[in-house]
Amino acid sequence: MDGDRLVDTFVELADTLVDDFDVIDFLHMLVDRCVELLDVDAAGLLLADQRGRLQLIASSNEQARLLELFQLQNDDGPCLDAFATGTRVSHPDLAEAGERWPRFTAVAAEAGFAAVDAVPMRLRSEVIGALNLFRNQSGDLDAGALRTATALVDVATIGLLQQRSIHHHQVLTEQLQAALNSRVVVEQAKGLVAERLQVDLDTAFAALRGYARGHNLKLSSVAHDVIAGDIDTSELLRTSVHTKTLRR
């Protein structure tokens, strides 16, 4: 694990903790950093809406996104268990987890995943979501990686719950619901960009996100403008590549 990169990540997460931060980009950064820093191949994050029902909010790639959606649609999987219990749920070999998650394990195997760790987004007694870490090889995740994952999730949770206590519940509910609503628009824009540019969904999302960062805009605002036709989709890909080059 790159220690300097890990420190930079915590600073980046902390710098995001302001009143009007972009929740979707914040949580996508979390799953991306988990894949980058930990010994995992994909990550997905679910958040509870105002009715307490889990919704997909971020994923590191399309395989993780589809698997998370499958968990929600079938009420079967480790992320749901971690959210329900408020404790970490792990399995080093999904081939032997069929009795526990019969439907999830079959679909996970088809996606190429062999092991999973689910970490709840929890602060004291309040659980607001869960993070799934997927690996292509069976075996236990390194203890240090688990501690790091927990620390990253804790920082993200604090970021979502950082409003003053007097406004806490109202702000949290509105913020999370706005993020969930924005996610729908982002997914629509991602599909539109993928179709028009003839690229896969992961590349389409990277283009949207790169444009948003390159122009200091919220991801949801860029998605709205793409759907409305106010942003040329070909410009998205050029901006994304340019932004990535600058950050290297």
Briefly summarize what is shown.
The protein is of the alpha+beta class. The chain is built from ten helices and five strands. A five-stranded antiparallel β-sheet has the order 2-1-5-4-3, with helices on both faces.
Walkthrough of the structure:
- The protein has helices at about 5-15, 25-35, 60-75, 80-85, 100-110, 145-160, 170-195, 200-215, 220-230, 235-245, and strands spanning about 40-50, 55-60, 90, 115-125, 125-135.
- With about 250 residues, it is an alpha+beta fold.
- It has a five-stranded antiparallel beta sheet, sandwiched between helices.
- α1 runs antiparallel to α2 and α3 (about 60-75) packs antiparallel against α5.
- The longest helix has 30 residues, at about 170-195.
- It is globular and about 50 Å long.
- It starts with a helix and ends with a helix.
- Residues about 165 and about 240-248 have low confidence and may be disordered.
Instruction: Report the radius of gyration as a whole number of Å.
Output: 18 Å
Structural class of the helices, strands and pairings? Answer: alpha+beta
- Annotation, overall tally of beta strands: 5
Strand order of the largest sheet: 2-1-5-4-3
Q: Key features?
A:
disordered C terminus; 10 helices; alpha+beta
Topology, please?
Blueprint: H1 3-15, H2 23-37, E1 42-48, E2 54-59, H3 62-74, H4 78-85, E3 89-91, H5 102-110, E4 115-123, E5 126-135, H6 143-160, H7 168-197, H8 201-214, H9 219-228, H10 233-247
Antiparallel strand pairs: 1-2, 1-5, 3-4, 4-5
Helix pairs in contact: 1-2, 2-6, 3-5, 7-8, 7-9, 8-9, 8-10
